[in-house]
Specification:
The structure is a single chain. With 184 residues, the chain is mainly alpha-helical. Helix content is 82%, strand content 0%. The N and C termini lie far apart (42 Å).
Length: 184
């Protein structure tokens, strides 16, 4: 199991273009093979928002711990970090050549567009799961609207876009609001 977790997160590290949020769709896809549900993924994503560190590393640690314990968490964390340890020094060494390469810049531009699409896809899946209790877009049999969650989602989007409040404050406030609603 530890070797499988290592290989999965090494692959995520090498193929995870676009930063942590763009990698979330790949992380969910691979973690679902271990049995991760959308609810567990939503929990992981919430923790990523409040725990310091990179999303990919936090996610690797979470999935590794969940499906293989401490050693799998350590292995997953190291595995997802290896590509950065390789590519960052190479980029720094060849930065001038990379920035001047027209074709590479066009490729990177397309990767940025795909990354935005993947971020929206993950956000959409999380809204389906949290707000409508639907595991995927093709499974509407168990639809049940969670008005509290949908209300919090809309409220947080509105407050963030209107007042540009720090996302960490919004996450913590949402957690407090959720706790109060749960207690009532």
């Amino acid at each position: 199991m530890i070797i499988k977790i290592f290989l999965v997160f090494l692959k995520i590290g090498f193929l995870g273009f676009g930063g942590g949020y763009a990698m979330l769709s790949l992380i969910y896809h691979e973690a679902s093979k271990f049995g991760m549900t959308m609810a567990q993924f939503a929990d992981m994503n919430a923790l990523d928002g409040i725990i310091p560190g990179l999303i990919a590393i936090n996610s690797a640690t979470y999935v590794g711990q969940m499906y293989g314990g401490f050693w799998a968490a350590l292995v997953a964390t190291v595995a997802v970090s290896v590509p950065s340890m390789i590519f960052v020094p190479l980029y720094v060494k060849y930065e001038a050549k990379i920035n001047k390469n027209y074709y590479l810049n066009q490729i990177l531009s397309c990767i940025k567009a795909a990354s935005v699409g993947l971020i929206f896809a993950v956000a959409f899946l999380l809204i389906l799961s949290i707000g409508l209790n639907v595991e995927n877009i093709f499974n509407w049999q168990h639809l049940s609207i969670n008005y509290t969650s949908l209300g919090i989602i809309v409220l947080v989007i509105f407050i963030y876009l209107r007042y540009e409040i720090n996302p960490i404050i919004l996450i913590l406030a949402s957690g407090l609001l959720g706790g109060l609603v749960y207690l009532i």
